[in-house]
Design goal:
This protein is mainly α. The protein has one domain. The protein is globular. The relative contact order is 0.19.
Length: 330
């Protein structure tokens, strides 16, 4: 006689339960980018006003040191760094060194050139970064427009400030490196993006100190300059870099690079509003060309095998394809 044993029914799967993800992930990544774009040049615009009280490199040191203190106290990144392997620590060290030198070059450049000009030059390697591997006529046209715009800007400024243009190009190369390294940190599962930013900013503070700390000494006895320097650090390095990490975590690197097309326009507007740097008609046209270059750029579609290709290849081999549609059963 066969005994029928009752088996309890499995518990029903929860339905329509709200996802318990991070609340920050509910915000579209493009919103984070727009916020970063605004602060990316708003802080430096105020830093230009601070140049009257503190040397340029002194302002760079105040910015990085203030950001390192704020991020270090907030995130305490040394605990996460202790769990990293050698590759992860090298990544953070490289990013920190890039942050230090990039900020020094950037401040030296905007001390000699309008903010919008520096932003457009900064943008050139970014479009190249976005176009790597995209060998289409449309993307070649995008690069041509961007290069043409930067040429117009540099041709206007080269006669008067060749050193400023050279510093702007050095900053541009470092900014492209910033995007590459920051995107890797944002996608690194071993350490959170913001924790990685905090650790790298501490490295940046160490790197920048021998380069510019002496220039910041007069500010230490000037409460107004010291407070302004802290404000610049928060507006220039804490807020935009944190927003970058939140955006990069969910955006492909090429997509993020394309969205940087907002930056030259943002810098030009902030330069007009905060610094009264009215661009000439040529400069407006040049910035427009740079923006148009990235606006028409498109990522190439991923290589996808045509429908039925696997079945046709298997038929030629005399076999049966094994895939999602047809599986061998036992």
């Amino acid at each position: 006689m066969t005994t029928i044993r009752s088996v309890p029914a499995p518990a029903p799967a929860p339905t329509s339960a709200p996802a318990r993800g991070n609340a920050l992930d509910r915000v579209p990544p493009h919103v984070y980018f727009v916020g970063s774009a605004v602060f990316h040049y708003l802080g430096p615009a105020f830093a230009v006003l601070l140049f009257a009280r503190v040397d340029v490199l002194g302002v760079a040191w105040l910015r990085i040191a203030a950001a390192a203190v704020v991020l270090g106290l907030w995130r305490r990144p040394w605990r996460a760094v202790a769990r990293l392997g050698a590759d992860g620590r090298r990544l953070l060290a490289a990013w920190g060194a890039v942050l230090a030198v990039m900020n020094c070059c950037f401040y030296l450049a905007i001390d000699r050139l309008p903010l919008g000009t520096v932003a457009a030059i900064e943008f050139l390697p970014v479009i190249v970064l976005a176009a790597i591997g995209a060998r289409t006529a449309r993307n070649l046209a995008a690069i041509a427009l961007a290069v043409g715009g930067v040429y117009l800007l540099t041709d206007v400024r080269l006669a008067g400030e060749p050193l400023g243009v050279a510093l702007a190009f050095a900053n541009a190369v470092l900014f492209a490196a910033y995007i590459v390294l920051a995107h890797r940190v944002a996608r690194n599962g071993a350490i959170g993006g913001i924790d990685g930013l905090a650790a790298s900013m501490l490295v940046a503070a160490v790197v920048v100190t021998p380069l510019s700390a002496c220039a910041a000494v007069p500010a230490l006895g000037d409460p107004v300059a010291l407070l302004a320097g802290v404000g610049v650090g928060i507006c220039s390095s804490v807020i935009p870099y944190v927003l970058d990490q939140l955006a990069m975590r969910r955006l492909p690197r090429a997509t993020y690079a394309l969205m940087v097309s907002l930056l030259p326009a943002t810098a030009t507007v902030i330069g007009v509003v905060v610094l009264a740097q009215i661009p000439t008609a040529t400069e407006v046209a040049a910035v427009g060309l740079v923006i148009a270059g990235v606006a028409i750029h498109r990522e190439p579609p991923a290589a996808v095998a045509p429908a039925g290709a696997a079945e046709r290849a298997a038929a030629r081999r005399g076999g049966t394809p094994v895939g999602p549609r047809r599986r061998r059963t036992t």
